[in-house]
Amino acid sequence: PWLSADDLQKMWLLSRGQVVSKARVPAHGQVMRVRLAAVGDAKGDVSAASPEGDCQDGRCGLIKRPGDLYEVLAFHLDRVLGLNRSLPAVARRFGSRLLPYSYTDGAPRPIVWWAPDLQHLEDANNDQNSCALGWLQYQEMLRPHRLVARDAPCSSIPHSEWSRLALFDFLLQVHDRLDRYCCGFQPDPSEPCVEEMLHEKCRNPAELVLVHILVRRSAPSRLVFIDNAGRPQHPEEKLNFRLLQGIESFPAAAVATLRSGRLQSLLLRSLRLDRELWESQGGAEGLRALLQTINRRAQILLRHIQEHNLTVFEDSP
């Protein structure tokens, strides 16, 4: 019931569509954008000659690394909670001769629907954002009854969107959006935020910026959650509460689902629809530890809401 007809259509295209062209994504080494043709689709082979310009009709997907399979779980979590901000994703094994061998070695990879109208900043160094927002500006924006100037960065995005994002990112422990510097926990030396010397910037909050803050041109007031692989193995004692900082209310429907005690069973029902993911992870038994981790984080989030007397708001779709 939480997957729309549009979701199911896109999932079918991603899992069954024939690969008719491919294109590398600049600055993203292990990601391939492919055009897909539904079986019997006459338009499929016509556009194979121009992979750059042929994704405007919504028939493309991004094939990501095998290690990013968690993105598929993230998509189902987004829908089960009624957030509806992630792009459809499925697990798939590829056999197309158009793809490099490393993509066809039999390992399932996530393929995520390519939204043709994501808004990107013109700045080549900051093209993973629709608007440039610093951490301090973001915290200022979240203050209750704060009037945001119409020309301020990200001013088209209402408070409720940041609440959805914070809830989602906390459950998945996605840091590379609100806290790419790992300021909210003590990172291991092998973490990219340490290796890239980002963690040192935590001492100066004015330098911190948000990343992957994206909207679609067709809906500039709704965030789109991308790169949601998160951290299934992130230890409980290091949970990043900075992701929740400044958030004073959460969507009622999502919180009700977390409180219901049915999160794991709902996720299992949803994930069963993705046969490739289901079988590659060993079915319900193989997914159990992962879902228990998310459920524990949900209980910790509910405790946080209770201890800080935070509220819930009724959701608009």
TrEMBL record:
Name the UniProt record assigns to this protein: F198A protein
Pfam assignment, any one: FAM198
Assigned protein family: Belongs to the GASK family.
Cellular compartments per GO CC: Golgi apparatus
Keywords assigned: Golgi apparatus, Membrane
Predominant location category: membrane
Subcellular location: Endomembrane system; Golgi apparatus
InterPro entries per UniProt: FAM198
Domain of life: Eukaryota
